[in-house]
C-alpha cells in the first residue's frame, strides 16, 4: 500500500499538469476571453486557442501593449448569454457584438466591471427586459447602442447621469414611459436616437434644447404629442432632426430656422398646422426637408428654395396654397420636389428645370394652371414627371422627347392639347406613360418600337387619331394598353398578338375596324379585353376561350357576326358582354341562362333559353316550354308545403322555449359602452337557435334582429359551471376570463377598425356580449370559401390596411398596450362595405408598462398556423407575436390559402410560401383568382407579410411601420381629397380604375 502512494500522487500531479499545461502560457486576458467564449456558441471563435500565449492574434481581438482593448465580433452568429467575463478585461475599451443572437439580458452586475469601456455596441441582438442602471455608471462610456433589441419598461432615471456619453441609440425597442426630460442633462450628448419605441403619449421635452452639442436627434415614431418646443432651435450644431411619425400639433416654431448646421429636417406624418416659417433658406447646409403629411397651410415661403444645397423638398399632403415660388427655378441643387396633394394654384415658374438638376418632380393633385415649363428637362436628369390632376394647358414640351432618363410620366386629367411630341412615344427607359383625360391629338408614333421598357401606356379619353402602329408589337414589356375614348381607326395590327406580357387591352369607344385577331396564343397574361363600341366585323375567334386568365371580355357595340363560340365556356368571366352585335345561332348551354341576358341583348339572330331573346323561334318550342312550366309549378308547390310544415313546427317549439325565457329575463342587467337604443329584454327576445352564426371555445354567437330593425351580434358565453378551466387553471373558467378580457379591453376602445362592443348583459353565471353586427362575416370564412371571388385585390388590400390600423392602435396608441394574442383571419370581421375590424378579444392581454417586465403567460394562446415560433422558448406576451400572426393573415390574403393545409405537407403557410418562392418563383404563390394587373402591389404586400412573419421577433416591424409600408404599396395612388381638402380613404389608384368601364 505504502509503495503505491507515491505512484498515485505522481499520477495525480501528471494529470493536473496535463489539464493546466495548455493554458499555462496563456495570459490572464486570454483566460478571461476563454471564459467569455463559454457563454457563447459560435464557430467564429474557433481560433481562440488556449495554447496561444496571448489572445492578441485571435479573431475579433485587438491589443495595445499586450493588453486586450477591443473585442469586435459583429455579425458573427454568436448565440448565447451576454459574455460577462469580458468585463474583467481591465483595459477593454470597445466591445462590438452587433447583429448577433445574444440574450436575454445584459448581466447587470458584471457590466459594472467594464470600467474602461468607451464603446458598447449591441445593436440587433435578442436582449429583453428593463435597461440596466449599471450602464450609466460606466465612467468612460462614450458610445452606447442598444438599437433593435426588445428592451422594455421606461428609460431609467440613471440614464440622466452619464458622464461622457456622446451617442445613445435606443431605436426600435419596446421602451415605455415617456421620452424622459432627464436626458436633457446629459450635456455631452451628440447623438440621441430613440425612434420607434412604444412610449406613452408625451411631449418633446423642451430640455432637449439644452443639449447644445447635439448633432443628431431622432425621435421618429415615439408617440409624441403637443407642439415642437422652440428650444430645439438652439441646437446650433444639429445636423439631423427627425420628429416624423408622431402626433405633434401646432405650428412649426420659427426658431427652427436657427438650426444653422441642419442638413436634414424630418417632420412628416404629424398634425402640424400653420404656415411654413421663413428662414429655412438661410440654412447653408440644408439638403433635405420633409414636412409632408401634416396640416400646413399658407403659401410656400419663397426663401425656402434659397437654401444653397437643398436637394430634396417634400411637402405633399398638406393644405398649402398659392403658387410654386419663382425661386424654385433658381434652386441649383434641387433633385427632388414633391408637392402633390395640396391646394397649390397659379402657374409654374417658366424657367423651372433650366438650372435645376431635377430627377423627380411630383406636383399632382393641385390646381396648378398654365403650361408645363418648356425647359423642365433641360438638365437631362428627369426620371419622374408627375403632374396628374391639375388644370395645366398648352402642349407637352418638345424637350421631353429628348429626356432620355424619363421612366414615369403621369400627366393625366389636365387640359393639355396639341400633338404628343413624336419622340416621347419611344423613350427607352419609359415604364409608365399616362396621358389620359386630356385633349391631346396626333397619332401614336411608330417610334414606339424603341420603348423597350414601356409597361403601361394609358392614353384614354383624348383626341388621338390614326391607327395603332404595327411597331407596338416591339414593346415587349407592354402590360397595359388603354386607349379607349379616342378616334383611333383602322384594324388591330397583328403584331399585338405577340405581346406576351399583355394583361389589359382596353380600346373601347374608338373607330377601329376589321376582324378580331385570330390565332392568338401569346396572351397568357391577358385578363381584360375591351373592344366595345368600335366597328369590328367578322366572327368572335374561338381561341379567345383558351386565354388562361381572361376574366373581362367586352365586345359589345360592334358588327360581329356568326355564333358565340362554345370555347368561351372555358372562361371564368366576371364581365361578359357581346350585346349589340349581329351574332346569331344557338347560345352555348352555360350562357343560355337568365343571368347572362344582358350579355347578349341586341343580337336579333341569337337563340337560347332566355325570355325575350330569339323571339322569332319562340313558336316552334312553345309546347316544350309549356311542359317545363307545368313541371316547375308542381315542384314549387311541393316545396312550399314542405317549408310551411317545418316553419309551423319551429314556431310551436320556440313559443314553448320563450315562455321559459320570459320568466328568467327580468333578472338580467345591462352595462353599455356606447349609446344603445335597446334593452336587455329586446336582446333576449331575439336569441334564436336558428340565428346562431358562430360557436367557439367561449360561447355561441347569434345574429339578433331587434324590434327597431337594428341588427347586432350577441355572444352568449358558456355558463360558469360548464367548460371549467380550459385556460388558466385556478383563475376561474375560460368563459369568465374571456368575458373579463373582452369587457376590460374592448369596452374602452374606440377605433374604426376594432369591432364595437356595444354593451354586456349579466345574470349570475350567464353573460352576454353585444357587438355591432358585421354582415359579411369573417375574412377567413369569405377567403377560404367559394365567396372568395367577392374579394378582388383592392378589397383585400383595404382589408389588410384596415386590420393593420386596428392592430397598430392596440399596440401603439392604447395605454397600456393591448396584445390581442389570437390574430387570425377568422377574427377579422367584414362589414357591408368590406371594411375590416379586428374582433374577439377573449384572450387579449393588457401589457403593464409600469416598469415591470412583461407578463409571462401560463399557456400559449393563438391558433394553429398563426403562432410565432418564439413561443417555443418563451411565453412572454409581446406585440411581436401579434405581428407574426398578422403576417400570416397577409400571406392568406395574397395566396388565398389557409394557414395550414394538407397541400403544404409538414409546412405551414409561411414555410410553404418561402420554399415555393425559392424553388419556383413568386408567381406560384399568388392567388390565381386575383387580377394580375395588380401584380406589383400584390408582390409588395407579400413581402410585407414575409417581413412580419420573420422568425426573429426583432426583424418584425412595429405595427405602425407595417401600416406605413402598406400605404406605401400604393404610394403612387394619390390619396383623393374632398372639396375641403380632407383626405378621402385610400382605395383605388386613380389610374387603375380608369381604363375599366366597370
Ligand atoms: C459645435 O461644433 C463645433 C465645430 O465642430 C465645435 O467647435 C463646438 O464646440 C460645438 N459646440 C458644442 C456646444 O459642442
Low-pLDDT stretches: 1-23, 615-627, 720-732, 849-858, 973-998
Note the overall shape: globular
Classify the secondary structure makeup into a structural class: alpha/beta
Figure out the total of helices.
13
Descriptive terms for the model:
binds 2-acetamido-2-deoxy-beta-D-glucopyranose; Phosphorylase Kinase, domain 1; transmembrane helix; disordered N terminus; single chain; 13 helices; globular; 998 residues; six-stranded parallel β-sheet; phosphoprotein; Leucine-rich repeat, LRR (right-handed beta-alpha superhelix); disordered C terminus; Transferase(Phosphotransferase), domain 1; 23-stranded mixed β-sheet
Task: Please characterize this protein's 3D structure.
This protein is α/β, with parallel strands linked by helices and 998 residues long. Among the domains are: 15-175, Ribonuclease Inhibitor (Leucine-rich repeat, LRR (right-handed beta-alpha superhelix)), CATH 3.80.10; 654-773, Phosphorylase Kinase, domain 1 (2-Layer Sandwich), CATH 3.30.200.20; 780-998, Transferase(Phosphotransferase) domain 1 (Transferase(Phosphotransferase), domain 1, Orthogonal Bundle), CATH 1.10.510.10. 18% of the residues lie in helices and 18% in strands. The chain has 13 helices and 51 strands. The strands form ten sheets. It has a 23-stranded mixed sheet. A six-stranded parallel sheet has the order 32-34-36-38-40-41, with no helix packed on it. Helix 9 (793-813) runs antiparallel to helix 10 (879-895). The chain is globular. The relative contact order is 0.04. The model is unreliable at 1-23, 615-627, 720-732, 849-858 and 973-998 (pLDDT under 50). 2-acetamido-2-deoxy-beta-D-glucopyranose binds next to loops.
Amino acid at each position: 500500500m505504502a509503495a503505491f502512494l507515491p505512484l498515485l500522487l505522481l499520477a495525480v500531479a501528471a494529470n493536473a499538469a496535463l489539464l493546466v499545461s495548455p493554458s499555462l502560457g496563456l495570459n490572464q486576458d486570454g483566460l478571461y476571453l476563454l471564459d467569455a467564449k463559454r457563454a457563447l456558441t459560435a464557430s467564429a471563435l474557433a481560433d481562440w486557442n488556449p495554447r496561444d500565449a496571448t489572445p492578441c492574434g485571435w479573431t475579433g481581438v485587438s491589443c495595445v501593449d499586450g493588453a486586450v482593448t477591443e473585442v469586435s465580433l459583429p455579425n458573427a452568429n454568436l448565440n448565447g448569454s451576454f459574455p460577462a467575463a469580458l468585463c474583467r478585461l481591465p483595459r477593454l475599451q470597445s466591445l462590438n457584438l452587433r447583429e448577433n443572437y445574444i440574450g436575454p439580458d445584459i448581466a447587470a452586475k458584471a457590466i459594472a466591471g467594464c470600467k474602461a469601456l468607451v464603446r458598447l455596441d449591441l445593436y440587433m441582438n435578442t436582449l429583453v427586459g428593463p435597461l440596466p442602471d449599471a450602464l450609466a455608471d460606466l465612467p468612460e462610456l462614450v458610445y452606447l447602442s442598444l438599437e433593435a433589441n426588445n428592451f422594455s419598461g421606461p428609460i431609467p432615471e440613471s440614464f440622466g447621469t452619464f458622464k461622457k456619453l456622446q451617442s445613445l441609440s435606443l431605436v426600435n425597442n419596446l421602451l415605455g414611459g415617456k421620452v424622459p426630460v432627464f436626458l436633457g442633462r446629459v450635456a455631452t450628448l451628440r447623438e440621441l436616437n430613440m425612434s420607434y419605441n412604444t412610449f406613452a403619449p408625451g411631449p418633446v421635452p423642451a430640455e432637449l434644447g439644452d443639449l447644445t452639442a447635439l448633432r443628431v436627434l431622432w425621435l421618429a415614431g415615439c408617440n409624441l404629442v403637443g407642439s415642437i418646443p422652440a428650444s430645439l432651435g438652439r441646437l446650433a450644431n444639429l445636423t439631423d432632426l427627425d420628429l416624423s411619425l408622431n402626433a405633434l400639433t401646432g405650428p412649426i416654431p420659427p426658431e427652427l430656422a436657427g438650426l444653422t448646421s441642419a442638413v436634414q429636417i424630418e417632420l412628416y406624418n404629424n398634425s402640424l398646422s400653420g404656415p411654413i416659417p421663413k428662414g429655412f433658406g438661410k440654412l447653408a447646409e440644408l439638403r433635405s426637408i420633409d414636412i409632408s403629411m401634416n396640416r400646413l397651410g399658407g403659401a410656400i415661403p419663397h426663401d425656402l428654395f434659397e437654401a444653397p444645397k437643398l436637394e430634396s423638398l417634400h411637402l405633399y399632403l398638406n393644405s398649402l396654397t398659392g403658387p410654386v415660388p419663382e425661386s424654385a427655378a433658381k434652386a441649383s441643387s434641387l433633385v427632388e420636389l414633391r408637392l402633390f396633394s395640396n391646394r397649390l394654384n397659379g402657374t409654374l415658374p417658366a424657367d423651372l428645370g433650366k438650372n435645376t438638376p431635377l430627377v423627380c418632380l411630383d406636383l399632382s393633385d393641385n390646381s396648378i394652371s398654365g403650361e408645363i415649363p418648356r425647359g423642365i428637362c433641360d438638365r437631362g436628369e428627369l426620371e419622374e414627371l408627375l403632374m396628374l390632376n391639375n388644370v395645366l394647358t398648352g402642349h407637352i414640351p418638345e424637350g421631353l422627347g429628348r429626356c432620355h432618363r424619363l421612366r414615369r410620366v403621369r400627366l393625366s386629367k389636365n387640359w393639355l392639347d396639341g400633338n404628343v411630341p413624336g419622340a416621347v412615344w419611344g423613350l427607352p427607359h419609359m415604364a409608365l406613360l399616362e396621358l389620359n383625360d386630356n385633349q391631346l391629338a396626333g397619332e401614336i408614333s411608330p417610334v414606339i418600337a424603341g420603348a423597350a421598357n414601356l409597361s403601361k401606356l394609358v392614353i384614354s379619353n383624348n383626341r388621338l387619331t390614326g391607327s395603332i402602329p404595327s411597331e407596338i408589337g416591339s414593346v415587349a414589356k407592354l402590360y397595359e394598353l388603354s386607349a379607349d375614348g379616342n378616334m383611333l381607326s383602322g384594324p388591330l395590327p397583328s403584331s399585338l398578338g405577340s405581346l406576351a406580357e399583355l394583361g389589359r387591352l382596353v380600346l373601347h369607344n374608338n373607330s377601329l375596324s376589321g376582324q378580331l385577331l385570330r390565332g392568338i396564343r401569346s396572351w397568357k397574361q391577358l385578363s381584360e379585353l375591351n373592344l366595345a363600341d368600335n366597328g369590328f366585323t367578322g366572327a368572335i375567334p374561338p381561341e379567345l376561350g383558351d386565354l388562361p386568365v381572361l376574366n373581362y371580355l367586352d365586345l359589345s357595340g360592334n358588327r360581329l357576326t356568326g355564333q358565340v363560340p362554345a370555347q368561351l365556356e372555358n372562361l371564368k368571366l366576371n364581365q361578359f358582354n357581346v350585346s349589340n352585335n349581329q351574332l346569331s345561332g344557338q347560345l352555348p348551354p352555360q350562357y343560355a341562362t337568365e343571368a347572362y341576358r344582358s350579355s347578349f341583348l341586341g343580337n336579333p339572330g341569337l337563340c337560347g333559353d332566355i325570355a325575350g331573346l330569339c323571339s322569332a323561334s319562340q313558336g316552334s318550342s312553345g309546347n316544350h316550354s309549356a311542359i317545363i312550366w307545368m313541371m316547375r309549378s308542381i315542384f314549387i308547390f311541393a316545396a312550399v308545403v314542405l317549408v310551411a310544415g317545418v316553419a309551423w313546427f319551429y314556431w310551436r317549439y320556440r313559443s314553448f322555449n320563450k315562455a321559459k325565457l320570459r320568466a328568467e329575463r327580468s333578472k338580467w342587467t345591462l352595462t353599455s359602452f356606447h349609446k344603445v337604443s335597446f334593452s336587455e329584454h329586446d336582446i333576449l327576445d331575439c336569441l334564436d337557435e336558428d340565428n346562431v352564426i358562430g360557436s367557439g371555445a367561449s360561447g355561441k354567437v347569434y345574429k339578433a334582429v331587434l324590434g327597431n330593425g337594428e341588427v347586432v351580434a350577441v355572444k352568449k358565453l358558456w355558463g360558469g359551471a360548464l367548460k371549467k378551466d380550459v385556460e388558466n387553471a385556478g383563475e376561474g373558467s375560460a368563459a369568465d376570463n374571456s368575458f373579463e378580457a373582452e369587457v376590460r379591453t374592448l369596452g374602452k376602445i374606440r377605433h374604426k377598425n376594432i369591432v364595437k362592443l356595444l354593451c354586456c348583459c349579466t345574470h349570475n353565471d350567464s353573460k352576454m356580449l353585444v357587438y355591432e353586427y358585421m354582415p359579411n362575416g369573417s375574412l377567413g370564412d369569405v377567403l377560404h370559401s367559394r365567396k372568395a371571388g367577392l374579394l378582388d385585390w383592392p378589397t383585400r388590400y383595404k382589408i389588410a390596411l384596415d386590420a393593420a390600423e386596428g392592430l397598430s392602435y392596440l399596440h401603439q396608441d392604447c395605454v397600456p398596450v393591448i396584445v390581442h394574442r389570437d390574430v387570425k383571419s377568422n377574427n377579422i370581421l367584414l362589414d357591408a362595405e368590406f371594411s375590416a375590424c379586428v374582433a374577439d378579444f377573449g384572450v387579449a392581454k393588457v401589457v403593464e408598462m409600469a416598469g415591470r417586465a412583461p407578463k409571462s403567460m401560463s399557456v400559449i394562446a393563438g391558433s394553429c398556423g398563426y403562432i410565432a415560433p418564439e413561443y417555443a422558448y418563451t411565453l412572454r406576451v409581446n406585440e411581436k407575436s401579434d405581428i407574426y400572426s398578422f403576417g400570416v393573415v397577409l400571406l392568406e390574403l395574397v395566396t388565398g390559402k389557409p394557414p395550414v393545409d394538407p397541400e403544404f405537407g409538414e409546412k405551414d403557410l409561411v414555410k410553404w410560401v418561402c420554399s415555393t418562392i425559392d424553388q419556383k418563383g413568386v408567381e406560384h404563390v399568388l392567388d390565381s383568382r386575383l387580377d394580375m394587373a395588380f401584380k406589383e402591389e400584390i408582390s409588395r404586400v407579400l413581402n410585407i407579410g414575409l417581413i412580419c412573419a420573420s422568425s426573429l421577433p426583432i426583424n418584425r416591424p412595429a405595427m405602425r411601420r407595417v401600416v406605413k409600408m402598406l400605404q406605401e404599396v400604393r404610394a403612387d395612388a394619390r390619396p383623393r381629397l374632398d372639396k375641403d381638402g380632407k383626405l378621402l380613404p385610400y382605395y383605388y389608384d386613380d389610374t387603375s380604375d380608369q381604363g375599366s368601364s366597370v
